[in-house]
Amino acid sequence: GLSIGVASATGSTRTVAIAGVVGMLTGLAALVTLEFLSARTQKQIYQHMIEEEKREFAEHPEVEKTEMRQYYIDEGFSQEEADSFVNRLSMDKDRWLKAHVTHVLEFIPGKTANPARESLTLGLSHLLGATITLLPYLLLKNLNSAAYGSILLASITLFVAGALKTRVAGGRWYVSAGEFLILGMLAVVVGYLVGIVVADLA
User: Fold this and answer.
1) What pTM does this model have?
2) How many Cα atoms sit within 13 Å of 134 on the Cβ side?
3) Predicted pLDDT at 38
4) Which member of 15, 121, 183, 195 has the greatest number of CB atoms within 10 A?
């Protein structure tokens, strides 16, 4: 969307390439920073929940046991079974904390994101996608050829990404691929129209 917008506004492959690289790198910095902070915050929240549970279990063990007991009863276990589970769990502080956070607070231990890994993954994905659409502007001098090449590469990338998504999320590959392609082309159209408007106003 950005490269097509700049192309329609300026008519220069060099300008598009410069703007694209700048946009790619600033976008990369912003995405990596936001993802790192988000993952780090999630991890801190989990650690805070664990500390709170430790404190509450130390100060109000019977209240905590009642909450856990009620969870098992709601899950269909008898009162006797719930009592047995809770009594056994409460004898092991680590198992108790893990069970209470998972079942009562509905937070899965060990599933918190790794800030560095998550931000790196997102950053590399952004870098790859942006580089693919910029390549034609870096390699070709004719603006129309570069623009068509960029759209073609972006379309292929989106189609493949949509199809591959079904390997993880399930569903029909062609539907997912079509959705990715349509949404991506909408971004191209919006970028093109914005470029025209900006060029007329400049």
Assistant:
1) 0.56
2) 20
3) 79
4) 195
